[in-house]
Every structure is written in structure tokens, then in C-alpha cells.
């Protein structure tokens, strides 16, 4: 790393908690059920995470289930309020998750238009890019069907295609590649590399070490809400694998 690199995201001692109300499902009788329902539990999902991301980096985020990766992405995107610490970003990060909202009773075609507008494109830009979005998704023959008729993989492909049709200075991709087939995955990985080359910063949350190795220049490992390791993909993945 040199002094000339431009920071795009600074995560400074980030703490995120979730407050949850116990359902009482584990309670054995009515009395304990009532007392359990009153209880509020606090989950410390992130416990003081700090790092700086730079222009042109593609950062893989790895860690075991429930370690805090999605929480970190949501906090960087500004969707999750920290209890302590802060996130500073040079422009508004776009979070692309498997749960990103498209409207299931509208056709694929309408969702491409709505999705494009939601990403800040003008109607003319949406029209201009419509064909390349549909082409990238590889599901042209389903575009006139409502999205509820799509498989989860098809919906994810369309969502990803809409999101990456515009350039993002900071793009957060949360497991969106896991659902596609090999051809789509390779195309998507190439698109992520292109975005990075256009001086963007890309974060990729994935359980696929292969995808991470193919696309990332740096890897951060989140473990029980803390930053366990941050560095070269080969080194971090090697240590991570030893822990599983
Ligand atoms: N909305 C929520 N309400 C309460 N607790 C939550 C919520 N979302 C996440 N958590 C908890 O916060 C912790 C971190 O979850 P998070 O989803 O960030 O992990 P993750 O590393 O993305 O997991 P995975 O690899 O399984 O997707 C977990 O203990 C989880 O149970």
C-alpha cells in the first residue's frame, strides 16, 4: 500500500448490536413462556471493527455463519445504525444483496425499469441499457412473466444484472453470486473485476473461497464480530481454512 491511495471507506471502531425479543419457544410451561416473552436479548454482532478500503480494491469478506459479515455490509451501506464507532464513505455505497427488493407481482421487464430508476438512472438511460441488462441476465424469454414465476436463481440473476448495469464507486455484494450457475458466475466475477478497474471499490461477501480468490485483491476475515485478519487473499484464506 502506498501513500497515494485514495480511501473510499473508513470503518472506525464499529460496534453494532441487535435487540431481540425472545419468542419463548424454548419455554416448557405457560408461566415460563410469559416471563421469557418479556425478555430482551442483545446480540453484539460487531465488536469494534476497523479498516480502511481504497480505490481499486476488491475486498473479500469471509467468516463463519453468524460472524457478522452481512451486518458489516449493512452498516457500511448506512442501513444499520452503529451503537459506537462510525463508517465514513467517499460516496454512497450500493448494497446488492440476495434480498434486494424487486416486486414479485410485476414482470421482469417492469422490474428492470423500476430497478434502474431506483438506482438513479433517467428513463432514457434505462431504455438505453435495457437490452444489455436482459442480455447479461440470460433470462430474456422470461421477461414478460411476473417475477413470482421465477426461481430464486433467476430472480438473483436479474437483480445482479440490474445493479451492475451502472458503475458504482462503492459496491457491496452480499452472496449474490452463490445462486447463479457457472457461466453466470464467471460473467459476474468478470464484471466485478471491471468495476474495480474503473477505480471503484468492491466488497464481496462469500462462502466460496474460489470466487474470492478469482476476484479479490484483499480479504478481511470477520470472526465473532471482530476483525480476525486482513491481508493478502492467499494468506487469509489459508489461515481461515485452518480454523474450520
Ligand atoms: N435482524 C437481526 N436481529 C437480530 N439478530 C440478528 C439480526 N441479523 C443478524 N443477527 C445476529 O447477528 C449476528 C451476525 O449476523 P450476520 O447476518 O451479520 O452474520 P453473517 O456472517 O453474515 O452470517 P452468514 O454467513 O450466516 O450469512 C448473528 O449472531 C445473528 O444471529
From TrEMBL:
Pfam families, per the entry: ABC_tran
GO MF annotations, alphabetized: ATP binding
The keyword ATP-binding belongs to this UniProt entry's keyword annotation: yes
InterPro entries: AAA+_ATPase, ABC_transporter-like_ATP-bd, ABC_transporter-like_CS, ABC_transpr_TagH-like, Bact_Polysacc_Export_ATP-bd, P-loop_NTPase
Highest taxon of source: Bacteria
CDD domains associated with the record: ABC_KpsT_Wzt
Keywords associated with the record: ATP-binding, Nucleotide-binding, Transport
Listed name of the protein: ABC transporter ATP-binding protein
This protein's record includes keyword ATP-binding: yes
Family named by the database record: Belongs to the ABC transporter superfamily.
Domain ABC transporter: 29-244
Species in which this protein is naturally found: Demequina litoralis
